[in-house]
Write a sequence for this structure.
């Protein structure tokens, strides 16, 4: 029998990447009766092992619930009605309930991803792991294509639209012509050492600490597993951070207002800090979402939340296209997303610059940061402004 050189598939939306953006998009499209195929270049185990975001904005938890994937989050997530700003050891609580009547929820990104994969399987939709050599074609036509190899076979997906949900290092954004794509970028002169520990967090709410030795953040994955971060040098090596040094710095930067219990360090790594936006987020029928289009420094906890707002806008635009033959939302997709993205960028940059030590800072800069933190913790107007952005601005 003659072997076919390539297998062809057909769907309405071809989704590249099974992170929070791609998986949530597939679920929202399924609910709207729109077909999709997801392809992912990593293995299923790998995506469950990747420790990343943990904090969901108020509306994002509602989105998970409304999309029918919030049951485990409701059981296992940790709900917060406030958090703390530590200023050289003194803690000030920001009361979300009183200031904006909204909450944040701690629920690990890998758990969100596991729940969305389980739902995808229940929906019966294709989800292919460990694909290779992914490329996109004819994106300015009405029949774009995705080509890739899977199990050693060449495959082609014919689709109406391609969703580039393939993260910062993905292949979609680089296919935009150079004269179309504009990039806005800022690197920060420091990174974060992040550790996952088998020990309770020092408080059941998050503590963001400004100190003379640099920034520290005390967050969690549950009330028995902590996620702790320390500002480190830009080119630092994790080999410079022994467990002893990590605990010593964590104790020192927290101060005496809370007790930090030590436990086994399960994982440690260094995260670089970057702000990045690519414009526009659509080229023809290729639409970018999440980290493939933008990166924020983690200080504002916005990355996964922005991935969700992008795909919510994308699913609404595609629904209007298929159900009402209306292309207005598709045409406005990039502008709608970018409006929210830039506000989150500004907030993440601002949180980063008030809380960290900078190598080129002056004594003036330190006094200015302290005055800003004093203002934030003593003025209801200033703390309301911080909190309304932190819990998530209203959607368009
Ligand atoms: P992802 O999660 O990177 O998923 C992209 C997927 O695409 C796959 N891929 C490809 N698949 C097929 N073909 C190719 N050629 C492909 N190339 C790549 C990848 O394997 C991957 O599975 O992007 P997505 O979906 O846009 O989601 C974005 C979030 O992952 C990210 O913004 C957050 O993790 C950022 N972030 C945080 N966000 C929050 O909202 N709240 C937080 O508390 C928060 N904390 C964090 C964070 C990120 C951190 N790091 C490590 C950068 C804390 C840290 C330390
Ligand atoms: C996290 O829980 O990993 C986390 C929370 C808040 C941030 C960043 C990371 O600002």
């Amino acid at each position: 029998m003659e072997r076919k050189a390539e297998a062809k598939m057909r769907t309405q939306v071809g989704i590249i990447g099974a992170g929070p953006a791609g998986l949530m998009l597939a679920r929202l499209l399924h609910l709207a009766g729109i077909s999709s195929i997801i392809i992912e270049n990593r293995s299923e185990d790998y995506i469950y092992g990747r420790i990343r975001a943990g904090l969901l904005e108020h509306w994002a938890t509602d989105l998970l619930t409304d999309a029918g994937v919030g049951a485990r989050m409701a059981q296992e997530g940790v709900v917060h009605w406030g958090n703390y700003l530590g200023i050289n050891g003194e803690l000030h609580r920001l009361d979300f309930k009183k200031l904006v009547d909204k909450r944040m929820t701690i629920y690990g990104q890998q758990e969100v991803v596991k729940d969305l994969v389980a739902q995808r399987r229940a929906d019966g939709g294709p989800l292919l792991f460990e694909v290779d050599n992914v490329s996109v074609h004819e994106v300015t036509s009405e029949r774009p294509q995705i080509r890739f190899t899977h199990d050693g076979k060449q495959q082609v997906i014919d689709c109406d639209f391609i969703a580039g949900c393939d993260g910062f290092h993905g292949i979609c954004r680089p296919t935009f012509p150079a004269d179309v794509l504009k990039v806005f970028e800022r690197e920060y002169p420091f990174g974060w050492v992040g550790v996952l520990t088998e020990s309770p967090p020092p408080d059941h709410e998050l503590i963001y600490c400004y100190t003379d030795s640099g920034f520290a953040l005390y967050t969690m994955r549950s009330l028995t597993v902590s996620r702790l971060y320390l500002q480190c040098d830009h080119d630092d090596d994790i080999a410079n951070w022994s467990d002893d040094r990590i605990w010593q710095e964590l104790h020192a930067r927290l101060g005496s207002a809370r007790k930090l219990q030590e436990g086994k360090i399960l994982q440690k790594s260094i995260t670089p800090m970057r702000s990045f936006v690519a414009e526009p987020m659509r080229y023809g029928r290729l639409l970018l979402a999440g980290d493939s289009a933008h990166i924020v420094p983690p200080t504002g906890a916005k990355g996964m939340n922005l991935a969700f707002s992008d795909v919510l806008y994308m699913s609404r635009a595609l629904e209007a296209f298929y159900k009402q033959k209306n292309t207005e939302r598709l045409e406005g997709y990039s502008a709608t997303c970018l409006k929210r993205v830039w506000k989150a960028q500004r907030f993440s940059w601002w949180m980063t610059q008030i809380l960290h030590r900078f190598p080129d800072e002056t004594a003036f800069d330190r006094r200015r940061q302290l005055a800003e933190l004093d203002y934030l913790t003593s003025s209801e107007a200033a703390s309301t402004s911080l909190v309304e952005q932190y819990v998530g601005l209203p959607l368009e």
Remarks:
- The longest strand covers residues 182-198.
- The mean pLDDT is 97.
- The CA atoms of residues 59 and 237 lie 37 Å apart.
- The pocket of P-hydroxybenzoic acid (ligand 2) is lined by residues 53-55, 206, 219, 227, 298-299, 301 (CB under 6 Å).
